[in-house]
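Cross-posted from the bioinformatics board.
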Amino acid sequence: MNIHSAAHPWPTAPLREAVAVDPIVLQIVEGTLNSIETEIEYAIERTARSPMIREAHDFRVGLFDRYCRKLTGRSYSAMPNAVVRDFPPETMKPGDVFLMNDTYLTEGSIGHLPDLCSTVPVFHDGEVVAYIQAFGHHDDVGGRVPGSMPGSAATVFEEGIAIPPVKIYCEGVRNEAVFTIVRRNTRVPEMLSADLDSEIQACLMGARRMCGLFERFGREQVEACFQAILEKCRDIYRNELLAKIADGEYAWEDYVEHDGITDPKLHKIALKMTKKGGKITLDFNGTDPQSTGPINWPADYADGAFLIKWIAPILRNLADTPERAAEIHVNEGVCDVFDVIFPPKGTLITPEWPAATNARSFVLLRCLGLLAGVVAQAVDGRMPADQETIRYTGFFGTDLDGKPFLSREVLGGGSGGRYYADGNDAIHIVPDSRNQPAEFTETRFPLLVEKLALRTDSGGAGLRRGGQGYEKHYRALVDCRTIVTADRVRLGCYGLNGGKAGQPFCVTVDAEGEGYDLGGLVDGEPVLKGQVVRVVTTGGGGWGDPLQRELELVLRDVIEGRVSLASAEKDYGVVLKEGDGAGRPVIDEVVTRDLRAEMTKARSAPLPMIDRGEGYEKMLRGEHRPRIR
Amino acid sequence: MSGQPAAARLRIGIDTGGTFTDIVSVDIVSGATQVTKVASTPANPAIGLLRGVKEILASAGAATDHVAGLAHGTTVATNALLQGEINSLGLIVNTGFRHILEIARQSVPEGYGNSYFWVKPDRIVPLQFIREAGGRLDFRGLELRPLDEASVHEAARYFRARSIRAIGICLLHSYANDAHERRAAEIVAQEYPEATLSLSCVVLPEYREYERAVTTLVDAFVKPHMERYLNRVHQELGSGLQDKPFLVMQSSGGVASADQVVRKPITTALSGPAAGALGSAVIAEIAGFPDLVTLDAGGTSTDLCLIEGGKPQVTNGGSIGPFPVRIPMIDIETIGTGGGSIVWISREGHLKVGPRSAGAEPGPMCYPNGGSEPTITDANLVLGRIPPALIGGGIALDVERARGGIAALAAKLPGDMGIEQLASGIIEIANWNQANAIRQMTIQRGIDPRAFALLSFGGAGPAQSAAVMDLLAMKACIVPPNPGNLSAFGLLAVDWRTDHIVTKVMHEETIDLSEIAARYAALEREAVATLERDGIDASRIRLVREADVRYAGQSMEVRVTASGGAFDETFLTGLIGAFNAAHLRTFGYNYAGEQKIELVNLCVSGFGLIERPQLPKPAIRFDRPEPKGKRAVYFGGFQDTPVFDRAALPPGGRVNGPAIEMSR
C-alpha cells in the first residue's frame, strides 16, 4: 500500500514535494508526540481496572494525523480508519468519542473482541486535525465463557458483543444507550465501564495536549513535521534496512498446529516476498483456508496497513547494531515501503464473517517469525532465530477453604539466537509483563511450586544458542483442573543458519508418577491432590553451526546446567572430562577436536538455512502427538 | 541527644559527590550557617570529608569541641554497585530455585519487539555461585521438609574453596519463619568464619522471592565496602571528632548511626539524592510553596522529585543501576539530559539534543580542553545566558569555540539558520524535553503540575527553569540560595529513621486483631531498640505504623498509615478507610464497600526527632535592587541586560525581566 493511495472511504494525504521544516520545531513536535503517548499510557495504567491491562500491560495507545496515519512508533496500536469511514470528519464535533471492537468492521485494526477501542478526534480552528486512540484487553465482553476467549468457538457469536464504530460521547454527552447495552453484555459491568472511563479520559487528555501543539506552532508547521516524521521512518527502512536485502523473490511458510476444534493439523501461512529497490511486496497466497476454530485473523483491510505495522518492526533486526535497532520507531511511514497481496476471502488471514477470531494471536505471532524466516534467506541468515514467549497455563477448582479459585499465568520462553548473542532465557514478549512469584502463588492458591528453573537443553543448539524455556513444577494441594492455551506444542521454534530448533512446549500431569502429556488447548484436565504438574516452555531456536560454538561457552553452559553433558557431545561435539579436582569439568581438547572433525565430515549436505526440528517431520508423517492418554 | 557539652553547638553536614564534597554547618543556637566546598577524593573519600570538616570549622572560627554532631551523605554504596567488579558474591536458595536470578520476573525492557534484539545483562551472581539447600517452608511458615544441613555445609565449603566472601541467603517464606535461614547462617559462619552474610529475613522480610533475593545480595555486596569506608572515616576523624555522633543519610530520607548502617548498608544506597530532596523540602516550607517539583540538573542527567505538603514522596522500591531493590527510598526520577548533553545531527539529518553527554570529561566545547561537540551549556554561553567565565574560579570559557561548534551544526541543517537562532532553538528543545519529563512524572502519580511550583538547582537547571515553568503553567519557579549545598543542608534537617517490615497476608474476613497487635508490637520493639542503640532519648522517639493493603485478588498493594492506638474494631475500620482513600488518590477510584481487602505487610517506621536548624528569616524590604553591571544576552536579538548579584539582592526586591541573576 501507499501512504498516499486513494480510493478509501477516509481522506488520503495529498502527494506533495518534501516540505522544508524547521529542524527545531520538528524535534519539539516529535519529542512531544512521544511524550503524549507515554502520558496517556501512564494515565491508563494508573486508573484502569482489568488485570489484563494493569498487570499484563495489554493495552496500546496511538496518535494519528488527519489522514489516519500513525505518528508514533514505540509499539503497535489500532487505527481510526473505520471510525472515519463511518463518521466523516466534517460531521465530527468537539467532545465526540467513538467506540468499536468488531473484528470485521474495524479495517483490520482490532483482532479480537475483548480489545474495545476508543477514538477521540483532535480539533484545531474548527476542523479535525488528528486522532487519539487507545484500546485495552478487557477482562470480559460476554460470549460463551468468562474472559470471552472460548478456545473452541466456531463463530463470533460465541465470543461476545461486537460493536461497529459508534459514538459513545456526542459533544461531551455520554450516549447512555450504548453504555447500557455494553454493560448488559459483560460479566463484569463495573470493571468494564471503569476501564472505558479510564481510556476515554486519558485519550481526551492526550487530545488537549495535541491541540496545544497545534496552537503553539500552527497547523502548517505541525503537519509539515508529521510528514517529516513519517518520511524519516520510510527512509530508514528504505536506505538502511531494505538496502541489506538483495533484490529477488523469497518464499517460506510456517504453521499453527491446532485450532481448538479440529485434530492437530498444520495450518499453513504462506509468504512470498519480492524485494525490488525500495519496495517489498508480501504475497500471502497459498495460505490455508480459514479454520473451524478461533485462530482466524481478519487482516485484509485498509491495504494491510495493520498487518504491515505489526510485522515490519521485525526488519529492525537488520540494523547495524541492536542499539540502533532499538532507536527505530515504526510509524505509518513504513506502509510506503510495503505492498501486501492477500489471498481471496476465506483463508486464515482473510476469514469471512462470522468465523471466530479470539485466538488469532497464534497466527499473529507466527507471521512475525514467518517474515523473519523469509528475510533470513535474503540476508545470509543475519536475522534472529524463532521464539514463542506467550501462552497461558493455569489451574482452577475449590481451595482448602472451600472457595473457588482460578490461577492463570503467562509463562515466557527462550528467545532465538542472534548472530551477535545467544537468545535470552525465559522472557515474555510484552514489555513489563511479569511472572508470578512462587511466594505469591502459594499464598493465594492451593499449589506448591516445587521447582522454578530453566529447562536444560531446551534452547536450540547453535553457534549462538537459543534461550532456555522454563521448567516449572506445581504440586496440587487439592483435586483440581489444569488449563492450557499454547502453540508450538509439536513444532519447535525454528533454528536459523545452521542452528537447531528449540524444544517445544509441554505440560505433563503426574510428572512424579505415571506422567502423561497434554496438548496445547486444554480446558480442564483433572489433577489429583498431591500430583505434580510439570510445565516446560519453548526454547528459542539456535543460530549458526553448533560445531563452531566456542569451547569455553559450551563448557560454561554445562557448568551452569543449561546444556547437559549428553547434548554437549551430541549437538556441539564437545567432550568434557574430570577437571582440577575441585569438581569442575574441563574440555577434553583432543577428543573434542576429533569428534568435531568427524561430525563435520559426516554431514552429507550443507546445513539448512532453517531447521524446524523433529516435530515437523513427525507431523508430516502423521505421527503428530495428539493428547496422550 | 543527651550529655552534650553546652559549647557543642555546631552541626555539620557533609555531602560527598563525585567531584565535590559540600559542607554546611549550622549553629543550633544562633541559626548561623556556613558553607564550603572541597574537591572530593574518590580513592579514599574519608580524606576529602575530613578536609572539608576542618575547613568549615576554620571558617566558623570553631574547634572540634564545638561540634555537636556530623551527618553524612555518601555515594560509597552506589558507586561500589555501579562501578565495582562484582566477583565475590554467592547465594543460597531452596532446592529447585537455582535459576531465580536468571529468570527474574521474565520481563523485557519497554519497547515493542525488544525481546528480539535485547540482550539480557549478566546477573549479579553467576549461576555457578548459586547453591541449593534442601528443606522447605510453606507460606504460613510451617515446615514441610526440614533444612538439609548437609547441603548447607557443602555450599559453605564450596564458597570457601572459591573465596566467595559475601553471601546472601534467601529461602522461600523466610518472612513467615526465619528459622531455616538463621540455621543456615550459623552453619555457614561455622564453616567459613571470614564470610560476610546477609539474610533475607533481616534485610527484607517481605514476600516476592526474586526481589528479596536481589535486595539481600545488594546488601551483602555493599557491606564490606561500607564497613571499610566507615572505619576509614572513623580513623581520619581522629580523637577530637571520632566520638561525636556520626550519622549517615539513608535512601528513605532519615539518618542512622554508622553502627546501624553497617548492619544493613543497603539502606544508604541512594543517600545523596535523598539529601537534596530533603534540603528542598525545607526551602519549600520557608518559601511558602509546600507542593513542588524539584529539578536538579547536572552535567549528564537531571533528577526530578515530587514534594507534596512539604514532604518528599517516598516509594517502597526502585532500582540502583540495573538492580531492583525493595527498600524505602525517596522517589526520584532521573532523565538523561543535563548541561553536558550533546547536540548532534542524526543519520537522518535531524537535530538531536542528548541523550549522549560530554559530562565533566571532556565537558562542553567552551571548557578548557573541552569536547569537540557542542552541548546545551555551549548554547547557553553563545546566548550570553551564562557568564563567559566559571564563577569563582575565574576559569575563562571559550565563547568563540562554542560559536564555531554551533555554526558547524547550523551549516549541516536545512535553511539559513543563524548561530544564535540555532542556539536558542537548542535551549527550546531542552526546555520542552524537561517539561515533557515533568508531565510524565506527575501524570504517572496522578498530579496536575499546574498546582505545583518548580524548585530548580544544580549547575544546569536555573538558567532555563523559568521557561520550563511557563511551558507547564506552574505556579512559580524557585531558585534556592546556595543551591550547590542543598544536599549538605538537607542532611541537617532530617530525623533518625529506621524501617521495619513483615509480611503477613490476612483476608479482611479472617483478620485476627491479636495477631496484628503482636506483630506490630514486635516491630515496634525492634524500632525502639534500634533507635536506643543510637542513644536517642525515649522522649524523642516517634513510631509510625503503616500497612500494605490491597483488594483481595489484586497483586498491587498500597501503603497506608495505620492508627497508633489500640487494636480494636476501629483500628481496622480506620485502616480500611485510609486504604480506600489512598486508592482513590493514587488510582482515581476505589471499591469502598464493594470489595474486601487483604492485609499484606505490616510496617513500623521509628523516628528519632532532631532539633531542626532555625534559619533566620530575613526581613522583607521592598527595595529596588541595583544591577552590578550589564551584559549582552540574546532574547530573539541581543539586548543589554542588567546583571544582579544574588547576595546583594534585598529580600522582597523586585526586578522586571529580562535580567540575569548570578549566584554561587
